[in-house]
Amino acid sequence: MKKSVFIVISLLLVLSMTACSANNEVIATQAQTESAAETIEETIAPETIVPTRDPDAVYEYATREIWCENNGNRIYGVAYIPLIDGQTRFPLVIHAHGMGSNHEAGAGYSKRYAEKGFAVYTFDFPGGSRPTNENKSDGDPMQNSAVTEASDLQAILDTALTWDFVDTSNVFLEGGSMGGLVATMVGLDNTDTVKGMILHYPALYMPQVITARYASPEDVPEVLSFGEDYELGAAFARDLWNVDVVSRLGDFIGNVTIIQGSDDQLVSASSIEEAAALFRSAEFHLIEGAGHGFSGDDFDIAVQYGLDFLFANT
Q1: Exposure winner among 6, 237, 246, 254, fewest CB in 10 A?
Q2: Domain spanning 3-312: which superfamily?
């Protein structure tokens, strides 16, 4: 294993039924008007698809709460749906948040993408948030792992194909850190459905990190501590024991864009650049000076890379 892979070992480990039902009420709109709320109810019809191809246009959008279910857990999420006259179905991006976070991690991307004509669904992984981050989904953190999250994302993907605002020929996965690993796992299993992936500093080598840390699954402690306020169960490590994502990257037939910070102290830029080369078709974008998570100008750059990718692939 290359040295760059081991850079992430200690750092990653110290990180301080399938059905959906929608709340048909539009809970917020960018226009903040009743007419916008009525538009989303009146114009969404399955038979009309009008591709959006204008990068300079800025659209209003509505948000809709959509609850999903998987393995007995209810999953909370919010869909951001553009409001465009004459268009009822839109390319969809499903955003998978990182370890310990929640659906708000995808809110910034969702707003910016929706303003450009792309629908987005961002949600809370069951048991996937720190106590300090509100998680509206069911689920026990002690049972959470990348494998359980992949099952949840699969359930969402399957049901998203039935949503009345989705252009099913243009469905994309987006994920950051562990969410990037989970998005990749699901993308690899759905090459006929997932058209492409947007990955932010993805923790693709987490399985190798785990097996390097522990001699066997039996050696994993029952409780794993990640900082002072965050604990996960042994399932987090044990579930990854036989998972090998990196060796399968070449199986994904769609396009991929990877956005990485040069100063990321949790996922090394060099290891992810090496992984990018294993995909059939992947762009690797390095944001100089950015760390593990994008904000300010770095966030704007990451958003633009994502939008460029979406416009090029829809």
Answers
A1: 6
A2: Alpha/Beta hydrolase fold, catalytic domain (3.40.50.1820)
| φ, ψ at 163 (rounded to 5°) | -70, 145
Residue ranges of E strands in 103-254? 119-123, 166-176, 194-200, 223-225, 231-233
Q: Which of 64, 95, 76 is nearest to 136 (CA)?
A: 76
pLDDT digits (tens, 9 = 90+) for 13-52: 434 344 565 554 443 444 333 333 343 444 444 445 555 5
Q: Which residues contact 286 (CB under 8 A, 6 or more apart)?
A: 260, 261, 262, 269, 273
Rounded to whole angstroms, the Cα distance separating 218 from 34 reads 57
Residue-range domain boundaries for the chain: 3-312
Cα–Cα distance between 183 and 121 in angstroms, integer?
A: 13
DSSP state letter for 77: E
DSSP state of 196: E
- In the block, tokens 């040069």 appear at 262
Task: State the alpha helices, DSSP H only, in 72-172.
Answer: 107-115, 146-160
- CA dist 223 and 220 (Å) reads 8
Please say whether the beta carbons of 144 and 236 come within 8 A.
yes
Angle of CA points 54, 60, 66, to nearest 5°? 110
104-130 pLDDT, tens digit per residue, is: 999 999 999 999 999 999 999 999 999
